[in-house]
Structure formats: C-alpha cells, structure tokens
Write a structure and sequence with these properties.
- It contains 2 helices and 8 strands.
- By secondary structure, the chain is α/β, with parallel strands linked by helices.
- It has 2 domains: 49 residues, 2,3-Dihydroxybiphenyl 1,2-Dioxygenase, domain 1 (Roll); 74 residues, 2,3-Dihydroxybiphenyl 1,2-Dioxygenase, domain 1 (Roll), CATH 3.10.180.10.
- The termini are far apart.
C-alpha cells in the first residue's frame, strides 16, 4: 500500500477568526466557504491543493490532556521561511513556545517555531535544516514533544 496524507480538518470555535489566522500565517486561498448557521466551514489551500479544512463545530479550547491530536506540523523550505513565519506569529499575538526558533533536538539541524492557533491547537512550522545553532529547550527529548 502506498499513500500520503491529504488535507487536515480542524474543529474551530470561531470560523472567521481561525480562517483569518491561517490565511495571514500561510497565505492560504479560500477554495470554498459556508456561512450558513450550523454548517459553517472554510476550505483553505495553495496552488489548487486543499491543505486545511476548518469546521465551526466546537466550543472552548483545545484539550491537550485528552487523547487525540498532539500537534500539527508544517514543513517550509528553509530557516528563512521559519523566520518570516515567526514574525507573522508574533504580529498575530499567538502564544509562542520556547520564545522563538529552536532545534528539534540535540545535534539536529532541523528546527522551527512552536505556537498555538486561536483555539489553542498546538502548531509547528519547521525547516529540515538551518537550525544547527538554535537552542534546544529540553535536553534528551524532542522539542516537538512540547515538553
């Protein structure tokens, strides 16, 4: 069997807030959207490829202590793209873990930024190389563990 991950779908508490957050952060286009009460959603992507579906079907904040999604990770081509994303994250006022770019672990060249979306869903934007000199926040554990 061969396969690859398709789009990711997230439950959000406020479609407008989440749609605007992800559009500003990633430059996503809106492929489709419904504003009909009880059926609000937005389909977001790039280059005619669906990346993220947002469904306004929840209340409250993301519960990290319950089974389910740990975090959502997005790979970008290089560490400069991570730096640009970090600037947007700070501009958006999103909670940022580790106060900026960190390496994935001791001796790793990959690294990125770890933060939360408007509903508290933990996110990562990383580059496969370029973080060799970045700090490692938790020795002996992968940074993407959000320890």
């Amino acid at each position: 069997m061969t396969f690859r991950t398709g789009h990711v779908a997230l439950n959000v508490s406020d479609l407008d807030t989440s749609r605007d957050f992800y559009r500003k952060l990633f430059g996503f286009e809106v492929f489709a959207e419904s504003t009909k009460e009880g059926r609000r959603f937005a389909l977001l992507g790039l280059d005619r490829t669906l990346v993220l579906a947002l469904w306004q079907q929840s209340e409250g904040r993301f519960a990290t202590a319950l089974p389910g999604l740990h975090h959502l990770s997005f790979e970008v081509p290089d560490i400069e793209a991570v730096r640009r994303a970090e600037a947007v994250i700070r501009e958006l006022g999103a909670p940022l873990y580790h106060d900026g770019i960190v390496a994935h672990g001791e001796g790793a060249s990959s690294g990125g930024v770890f933060f939360e979306d408007p509903d508290g869903i933990r996110l990562e934007i990383y580059a496969p190389a370029g973080a060799e000199t970045a700090p490692v926040p938790t020795p002996g554990a992968p940074t993407c563990g959000f320890f």
